[in-house]
Amino acid sequence: MSISIRPIFRFSLCCPVTYHAGPFLKLPLASWLRFWFLITLLALSSSPAYAEWMSLGESESGTTVHADPATMRREGDLVKMEVLFDFKTIQTKADVSYLSAKALMEYDCAKQRFEGRTVMYYSGNMGRGTLLDRSSDKGRWLPVSPGSLDHALWRLACGKK
Questions:
Q1: How far is residue 141's CA from residue 147's CA, in Å, rounded to a whole number?
Q2: Do residues 71 and 81 touch, judged by C-beta distance below 8 A?
Q3: pLDDT at 80
Q4: Is the dihedral of CA 139, 144, 148, 151 positive or negative?
Q5: Beta carbons within 10 angstroms of residue 86's beta carbon
Q6: Which 3 state secondary structure label does DSSP give 141?
Q7: Are 84 and 102 in contact (CB under 8 A)?
Q8: If you write DSSP's letter for every residue of 76-113 in order, what string do you get?
Q9: Could you give the CA distance from residue 92 to residue 96 in angstroms, rounded to a whole number?
């Protein structure tokens, strides 16, 4: 069985046509590359945002203190920063039992003092679990004790070595 290929003309052309695909193909290709780059970037950055907690040490009572340097905001001598207190044993405050507390702390770099602006208490370790209670100690400044974990937090917030 032999196969033959025959040209089929469906319409006739009255004049020659020149097709310049170069500029046309370059622009959409660049656009497609930008589009796929943007999609890839969005896909990679759409993961849940977790705090990058940096451990600053553990107290004798078993409390581990963590800070998130990415949350530091400075206004003059005052620095606000999120801090996480993680406990090995259940703590109790006003009939609420919790294993961790996240706090928005404010540090006064000039007067070497701090206050807990907002504190949230959680049922699980590392700020996980159910939010059990929330409190605010605004206006209640406490002095930073040298050599304490509060001093380590103050040094981190104020950039002291």
A1: 18
A2: yes
A3: 92
A4: positive
A5: 21
A6: coil
A7: yes
A8: TTEEEEEEEEEEEEEEEETTEEEEEEEEEEEEETTTTE
A9: 5
Q: Strand pairing partners for 75?
A: 78
> CA 72, CA 51: separation in Å to the nearest integer?
12
Contact indicator for 34, 41 with CB cutoff of 8 Å: no
Which two three-digit tokens encode residue 66? 């963590």
Q: Which two tokens stand for residue 78?
A: 């005052």
Cα(26)–Cα(24) distance, integer angstroms? 6
Q: Is the dihedral of CA 34, 36, 40, 46 positive or negative?
A: positive
**Over the stretch 14-64, which tens digit does the pLDDT of each residue have?**
656 565 555 555 556 666 567 667 677 666 665 444 558 888 888 888 889
**Separation CA 131–CA 140 (nearest Å):** 23
DSSP string over 29-82: HHHHHHHHHHHHHHHHH-SPP----EEEEE-TTS-EEEEEEEEEEEETTEEEEE
Cα–Cα–Cα angle for 87, 69, 39, rounded to 5 degrees? 110
What digits encode the pLDDT tens for the residues 80-130?
999 999 999 888 888 888 999 998 999 998 998 898 888 999 989 988 888
